Amino acid sequence: LDLDPLNIAIKTSVGMTCYFAGRNDDGVRELSKTIELDGSFGMAHLFLGATYTELSRYPEAFAELEAAIRLSGRSPEALAALGYLHGVSGEVDRARGILEEIRRLAGVRYVSPARLGQVHVGLGERAEALDRLEEARAERAADLAWLNVRPVFASLRGEPRYNALLTEMKLPASPYIAPIA
Question: I need a surface site. Which of 12, 61, 150, 170 has the fewest CB within 10 A?
Fold first, then answer.
């Protein structure tokens, strides 16, 4: 960041790190600054929307996730974030609609089962979420490398099946993210 302070991907990574570390106010600040520099980078909108979701700032989260979906061409990750948001905000039918869209998308391209699990967590469907995470583990889905630090899965901490997944992947049960210097 010191060498290339205007690099949007690096700036987004700083905000993402704040999100994964649970430093949501810092994440909002960093990701908002990134979007001010270049509002066309979908990942910045995605993680700002996810951060707003964690803060229960749902109107802002919806706006950012809709931008992420538009800019990403309806990527599975952006759709899953929106489905999770619909679930946690009580819009069950919309969350189920997103879940079906992700399933249809999985019929034509690879979609990590963890994305489906994310929406199931938002709906409060813990067993179904764990089924999808176990499926992702069997497929060696790359996105599971973030499993123990993704806030959307925090409600599963303490579940024996969740802990078994972390053990199998040699991830610590308690998330640790080094502070940003």
Answer: 170
